Fold this sequence. Notes:
Layout: E1 2-5, H1 11-22, E2 27-32, E3 37-42, H2 50-54, E4 59-63, E5 83-85, E6 88-90, E7 97-101, H3 108-121, E8 125-127, H4 145-158, E9 162-165, H5 172-178, E10 181-184, H6 192-198, E11 205-208, H7 215-227, E12 233-237, H8 255-262, E13 267-269, H9 271-275, H10 278-291, E14 295-299, H11 317-333
Parallel strand pairs: 7-8, 7-14, 8-9, 9-10, 10-11, 11-12, 12-13, 13-14
Antiparallel strand pairs: 1-3, 1-4, 2-3, 5-6
Helix pairs in contact: 3-4, 3-11, 6-7, 10-11
Amino acid sequence: xIISTKRGTPAxxxxxxxxxxxxxxxxxxxxRGTDYNVFGLVGxxxxxxxxRIRANPYVESVQRVSEPYKKANRLFHEADTVVDVNGIxxxxxxxxxxxxxxxxxxxxxxxxxIAGEVKAAGGCMLRGGAYKPRTSPYSFQGLGTEGVxxxxxxxxxxxxxxxxxxxSEDKIDEFxxxxxxxxxxxxxxxxxxxxxxxxxxxxxxxxKRGLANTIEEWIMSAEYIMAGGNENVIFCERGIRTFExxxxxxxxxxxxxxxxxxxxxxxxxxxxxxxxxxxxVESMSLAAIAAGADGLIIEVHDDPExxxxxxxxxxxxxxxxxxxxxxxxxxxxxxxxL
Length: 338
């Protein structure tokens, strides 16, 4: 971090600034100039609050040299992190993971049936919503614990690990017991109390990007989880809110190389929520693989016209199978398996 002070700052004030930073375990180098004094700080500057530093009337500017995240930063962890989800490895040069399943679990029979179809098509995990964050309070909110247990039955029948969204701290014990990959949804990306709580979980976390959050804010949310002790975090891009109306959200595929440059964590893409239209899911899935994504999470329903939620963005099993098959061809081009 580099800090410059205003012209004419008294020597006593400079000494106070130096002492404050040194008391926090930082090494301080000061360059005295004609008009400004510049401080170079070396050490763990993540402990510093830039706004508090700027509040000092003698401080002219504050500039970070490195990003404000440490555990997720590739600078401090050069090798790719590979996250193990009940035997399925995601990240590094492992196989590209394809996760499929309904937006909402509707019954045990439905969960088992679609899980079998996802597995037959080449999917390696089952996704399904048991607790649904919906814009309208009158929309279907999920089956709750019953939905989670329906997915457990599907796992027993097919062997597929299960992925589901955790909405609140009071369900952590339930998810720790039953769910293989715990999803934190877009609306909870900056629910910091929840992030701290899942940081204490032993299960890997799938962290979706918020509706209108920057990449740095997203990484900082992962940092909250990792700072709590859980370093098995997978990023999930699901589109961000922009002015465009032809798709549900705007899929930002540039995050794939950026996340891989800035962090060591895996990243997967959700083309279903990004586009909101099943007709666009295939092309965005193939583009995500070409961009270097470590996986896809796709909504699959065998009767989308009657789905209890998000049928318009769900692929029928045969279409899902076609996406997986085409994805294998693209994966080979980029030196990966699927």
